[in-house]
TrEMBL record, chains A, B:
KW Protein transport (keyword) present: no
SUPFAM superfamilies in UniProt: DhaL-like
Protein name stated in the entry: DhaL domain-containing protein
Biological processes, Gene Ontology terms: glycerol catabolic process
Source organism of the structure: Microvirga vignae
InterPro entries documented for this protein: DhaL_dom, DhaL_dom_sf, Dihydroxyacetone_Kinase
Automatic annotation (TrEMBL), chains C, D:
SUPFAM superfamilies: DAK1/DegV-like
Annotated ranges, domain DhaK: 7-329
Name the UniProt record assigns to this protein: Dihydroxyacetone kinase
Domain of life: Bacteria
Annotated source species: Microvirga vignae
Gene Ontology cellular component annotations, sorted alphabetically: cytosol
Amino acid sequence: MTIRTETIAAAVAKANQTIKRHEQELNAADAKLGDGDTGGMLARVLGKMAEADLSEADPGTALTRLAKAATVATGSSLGTLFATGLLAVGRQAKGRETIEVADLAAFVASARDAMMERGGASLGDKTVLDSLDAIATALQGKTSPTEAADAAAQAAADALNTFRSRPNRIGRARMFGDQTIGIDDPGMLAVMHLAGAIAE
Amino acid sequence: MTIRTETIAAAVAKANQTIKRHEQELNAADAKLGDGDTGGMLARVLGKMAEADLSEADPGTALTRLAKAATVATGSSLGTLFATGLLAVGRQAKGRETIEVADLAAFVASARDAMMERGGASLGDKTVLDSLDAIATALQGKTSPTEAADAAAQAAADALNTFRSRPNRIGRARMFGDQTIGIDDPGMLAVMHLAGAIAE
Amino acid sequence: MKKLMNSPADFVDEMLEGLTAANPSLVRGGETGRVIRRADDSRNKGKVGVVSGGGSGHLPLFTGYVGKGLLDACSIGNVFEGPTVGSCIEAIQMADGGKGVLRLYGNYGGDRMNFDMAGEMLEDEIRTTTVLGTDDIASAGPEERKKRRGVAGIIYAYKTAGAFAETGADLDAVTAVAQKTVDRTRTIGVALSPCQVPGSDKPSFILAENEIEMGMGIHGEPGIWRDTLRSADAIADEMIDRLLNDRPEGAGNRASILVNSLGATPLEELFILYRRARARVQAEGIEVVQPLVGHYATSMEMAGASISLLFLDDEIGPLLASPCECPFWTVR
Amino acid sequence: MKKLMNSPADFVDEMLEGLTAANPSLVRGGETGRVIRRADDSRNKGKVGVVSGGGSGHLPLFTGYVGKGLLDACSIGNVFEGPTVGSCIEAIQMADGGKGVLRLYGNYGGDRMNFDMAGEMLEDEIRTTTVLGTDDIASAGPEERKKRRGVAGIIYAYKTAGAFAETGADLDAVTAVAQKTVDRTRTIGVALSPCQVPGSDKPSFILAENEIEMGMGIHGEPGIWRDTLRSADAIADEMIDRLLNDRPEGAGNRASILVNSLGATPLEELFILYRRARARVQAEGIEVVQPLVGHYATSMEMAGASISLLFLDDEIGPLLASPCECPFWTVR
Ligand SMILES: Nc1ncnc2c1ncn2[C@@H]1O[C@H](COP(=O)(O)OP(=O)(O)O)[C@@H](O)[C@H]1O
Ligand SMILES: Nc1ncnc2c1ncn2[C@@H]1O[C@H](COP(=O)(O)OP(=O)(O)O)[C@@H](O)[C@H]1O
Ligand SMILES: [Mg+2]
Ligand SMILES: [Mg+2]
Ligand SMILES: [Mg+2]
Ligand SMILES: [Mg+2]
């Protein structure tokens, strides 16, 4: 199956609903380690993305417009990284009418790399990067959409579980040091919810 | 019996102890109607008065020194009125070696009048003036110290009871209007404690 | 309530020590140590002196407004207590350059008694006049305007009287300008949470979670109503309505707005209030000039804000705009 | 926590509307509406531009410091969020007079990413440099100084860089002065009570009645210890000890002290802290010049204070003392 602009729009709509539902949960998770705004910020970002005009856009253009909507909505770390990832994927998709499920692994990997470059964090720092890395790996060789979606959702959930027992090593959360052991990273938690929503 | 400087010093010492004991009670009474500082302020004023040097002073000079000590300690309404009253009595006693108990009624009346003039309140406004007025009346014709002290203490207690059911009509408390009905005026409460202490 | 302080008994003196150490234009003086005067001594300026005074706990009031084009000296009492008569005497003496001294302070019992006594005690040496700040419309109705207490709006009278004194005007003229400014100033406050007097074991009043009080005084004196929190626009609307309904005679069509934090309320919220207050005043056809938004008269950590309007005329308008200089208010 | 506001979604825009309405020297601009620039446009001054930016909720930071001898333009994000890349681009463009632009802002993830992106997107048109505020000694040890977050002390770099830019210095020289100022600035804060982000249903952290946290960050990031309240002198002593122990190389014997309210803490308490801080610094043989005591960088209604030291040398001393003018800081 191929992914078109409509597929992307539907995924954004779903993600938007999911994030609204988990807004206070994500705020609470962030409040343990940061400033308690992850949920509110993502709700705002996805709200703006859901309003973005994707008419007459091929997937690459659609992703770029979504990224721009995100950058207009926020300047927070996670929001900006999110936009950075979308931009990277949009650049990869440029000029193509459709995207194949088989391309997704490489696309997520390119988002991960662009975000790593922009944010200066490394794999293993217990951030969204680790979730994306796990998703990229899980998507490898997947060609059916449901298989891919399930694998991504599972990988995001597994990454959250795996990293829970490790300390955060970047951003505000870094300053809590070993107190972050046993606590979910709010960004990873958000990715889990988002991946889960798209899988549904 | 006659009143000498030592008698005055002893009364101040007693009053100082009493006020310390009732400091928070008076603050709480004032907090219902004003800014909650009557007790703290009087404790400070009487503390300073108890420290005043009354050596080689006749009663009039002693009273004037006590008034000065009070004016140095505070600029609050009640404190300033208190000093005003002491100054008036000191002026009356000027040049005399001793004061007779029989003079006390007139002395308290002169304090009351000076305080009325300074503060602009009237009798009936539910203030210390009403307590002093009641005391001045009760002291009339009393010549024995214990009789006088008892009469003053009783008068102060009665005044407090009588005025409780009326509204405050001056100062901060005025603004609470009829809400002050049923509530003790903090200044009158303080006079009751002070008169009671001296009677002991 | 947590406070960064040492012994409550040292609160005022240590505060004054810090205030003068940080601001060399302010000098602490007098035997009482409870007077602040201009470092460039006013006594040899051949001008009318302007003094104020009041209790501590209201910074930048009162002492912070000592400076060129404002106050010459200021006496300062304990927290929420009037200044002692001794400090009032010293403040008047320090402001006197031989042309007399205006006593300009808020209408509170202790302040009044002590400034009156000080004036009487000095009457053979120094000519003094009195103007009382009575801007708080919540404290008495229009028919009892003279009984109203003074709050943040008094700084407008500092400004115009101070500026006029600098021009060499005589005592009666400076007094008249101060009185006119008070007469044309209206203030109302809204409290969100209390403050606590150092050493006291209780806050000065209690407001429930989500409760506010319109018109509450700066020491917790009762206001007009107590109810649940409303939107900033609704609150600003009511405050402006009440101020405009109490407009002085001959108010004219130019006004300055002062949106003042009672202490804990941050600048963000003040600007949100100001935005609405200004729009409302403009909608009445009144031009807004020289607005002031910030911490001008506080009650320590009390949360809330006050809004003042000064209705200008051709005399006090230029005086408000003329230069002044103190650590908390500069006009050039 | 009670706030005087309307919809949380309008908090920042309404605040900016009020800020600019009250201060005609500040102009709101850009398509994003999230940039403040000087009313006397910097673009035709033929000088290096200095821009900053950051999240809302810290007034007078960041936007309040736009003015002559300070910032030329400033981007501003939502409460406690970095400014958007679009607003950073606009701020840089508005500050550019053809001689390049210094990006001078606090070391926070979102701010950094967005200013970096903005710089990259403009790199063909405008030469930009970066200096990050890293003055908070509680946020990382001396060996990781570059990782420290920026807090109130950044205003010192605004001042020196802004003053130097006014002299016509080139971009590299202005950048070097900003970096040197950051390198010579140290700050530590103590929090007494939290603030709450508009729209959030919880305060940003919780401190028990009578509990304080030394070194806590301006968004509630963890500090060095949490314990019961101590005396102001004991707190000032610890803060000054920690600052002096972290003294930069070649610190010299002249310093400015900034005692800053985190929001709700009133001036009275700041002056009590300053009094002690100054005495302690002087006892080290360090001369105190140009002290600042007040609300310079806040976290809305958070209670607490920060103390910053800027160790002066012969280059930045005169730049700190030279004229500047913005609504919240004037030097003449
Ligand atoms: N430099 C970074 N690189 C990768 N992920 C990051 C980085 N900084 C933050 N994150 C992610 O963003 C999440 C926090 O997002 P958010 O609360 O919006 O940021 P903030 O409030 O710190 O600006 C973290 O849980 C983490 O997963
Ligand atoms: N003008 C006045 N005349 C007479 N008594 C007064 C006057 N004002 C206040 N008082 C008395 O002082 C008491 C309040 O004292 P205090 O709390 O020290 O004053 P404040 O805090 O208002 O300066 C009142 O209970 C009243 O008895
Ligand atoms: Mg966050
Ligand atoms: Mg009282
Ligand atoms: Mg009082
Ligand atoms: Mg944030």
